[in-house]
Amino acid sequence: MVEVVREFEQLGKIGVIAEFWNSYIISCTDPELIKATPHDQSHVRNQEIVDMVFEMDTIYVIKDRWMKTFPDTLEQFGYVLLKKGDPFRLGGRDVCKYDKMNIE
Q: How far, in Å, CA of 8 to CA of 34, rounded?
């Protein structure tokens, strides 16, 4: 499993939002490079990690079982995320890049 998710390292320093377990699995290969959190409708254990995800310049969303498709806009943790580009497969998962905008 670690070898499969290690593919995410090629994306560089990123933030990831996913289902609970997927978020932790994705970041385990290099937690300094990849900051990941469960989505805001899941059990979020550490708000500090959420903050670290949104400090990253690049955020990817993984479409686990919590989404059927990647929407053009997605609200998470007080941010509006705007879909950027087309979804793709990486590490055995459906992934899409999003840009963040603060709701304030």
A: 8
